[in-house]
Task: structure prediction
Amino acid sequence: MVTRILFRVLLTTACLLLGQSGVAGAGQSAPKPPANDDCLACHGDPDAKRANGTHVAVDASVFGASRHGALACVDCHADLATLAEFPHADPLKKVNCASCHDDVGATYHDSIHAKAREKSGLNVAPVCADCHGRHDIRGKADPKSRVAHAQVPVTCGVCHDGIKLRYDAGVHAAALRQGNARAPVCADCHTAHAIQRADSDASRLRATAECGSCHTSVVESFTRTFHGKVTQLGSARVAACADCHGAHDILPASNPASSISPRNLQTTCGRCHTGANARFVQYDPHPNPRDYQRSKVLWWANRFYWVLIPGCFAFFGLHSVLWAWRSRRDARAHRDGIR
Amino acid sequence: MMDAVHIRRFDRPTRLLHIVVMSTFLGLSATGLPLLFSDAPWSRMLAALFGGFHGAGLVHRFFGATLLLAIVWHIGNVFWRAFVRGERGLFWGPTSMVPQPRDAVQLGQHITWFVGAGPRPRFEHFAYWEKFDYWAVLWGTALMGAAGLVLWFPVAAADVLPGWMFNVALFVHGAEATLAIGFIFVIHFFNGHLRPGKFPMDLVMFTGSVPEDEFREERAGEYSRLVATGGLAAVTAPAPSAALSYRGHLIGTAGLTIGLVLVAFILYAVLR
Result:
């Protein structure tokens, strides 16, 4: 209680002094926006609190080291710039990041997180600061950043804790722990700002393309299958990567808990193909007609048609060309004969 | 020419069968090619003509089932003609569709004639390239139909087949389609319609008859046989009506156009 009263006294004194210097410097009409030091005079106190007891302290060293360290407080807290009286009444208006980051703002605006807040009134859905931080914002290239590649699962996991547990169990989290900088984190598949429902057609098609950005040959073999071709045609109603492999808890086939473990294949295929039996799951979802060891019959079929098709066209092509040549010569001879 | 004496080559059921095979083949090609060339820039557009991929799939199955039924009907009809009606010469003889030693000889003679080293062979009712077309369609429909049914009903197929046969079925369906589409829309179109002397199209499969002078020249073997056996009168027919010729031109033009457009699509996808 004593500190609170002391703080109030200090605050009032400081602001009075500030106010005087402001008036002296800026003339009568427009109040001069407060400098960062002016703000820190109050907010620099680690115990600074609002009347309702919530913290309003800003650590000058943390802010200085942040991505926005060079900015003025009023650059973001724009409503402070036109205030004449300090201490200002709280709360201030919400910071509008889109006043600078307008492109990201527009992308976020159409995302499921923004819609959750604005349409569904789900106030726990994140705004910029929930993922990026506030006065401690760091660029994603900074390993200490909340949005640094390796930190993304932690940041998303603050809310999506259950998904984070499953992600941590999968192969991609394991690769990330081993320092693989290309191992995908949440934002690689879901995007950072444009996040949509994962079961939307656009999301499903996007995710498949994302898998292909690393697993090139696997996705190439997938595009040889009916599933892959239909997916390429823009239909999301057939099996794509995540439908068989899972999304967050992807496990290798050698793991008995994996959806593609031989013991689970009938269940996995059976989710779409009701009644899939042991013979059914001998299907190869990633065939390669040039790999003799993988599928001998397919290899032979490929060879057979590589002989048959060019052979057929070569023979009948030549046959047609000769026929045309002969018929035209005969027609000309016939015409000349009549003439 | 309209008043010239004609020789009847194809009866109504045969012509109808050709139209069914032709229209289902065009439909199957147009609905199957988007999937075969799913990465081509035109694949989604072509599929969109049928209401997107799922619409194209439905139309494809409808045409596939129709073609299979037509072929089953045809095979049944051939056996009925042979064994119930006791028609002779269906499996062997001058008018048979079954390949015979004479066909190999005539192929050699034809090529000799192409290069100007011999006379034109005296063809019978069906020439070797027509028999090739016929058996290619029959074989292709059986194989693609079987593969198509496996892909249509995979769970049922897995009662007897191992799952890797789905991979083989899809590959064979696509490869056989490439062969069939290329063959029909290039080689058959040329042999039957576009070659000098027939250009732009041969109406015989749509009207059923051919002018006698053309028949005498093109089917010298059959003509001499008919004259010798006195069978010519039985196949002589009046010239097709103007309406029938018009309808033939219309159907033929539509078929040729669709086929050649699809060939252009394929060439664009392959060569781009």
About this structure: The two ends of chain B are 45 Å apart (CA to CA). Chain B has a mean pLDDT of 93. The domain at 6-271 of chain B is CATH 1.20.950.20 (Fumarate Reductase Cytochrome B subunit). Chain B touches chain A through 47 residues (CB under 8 Å).
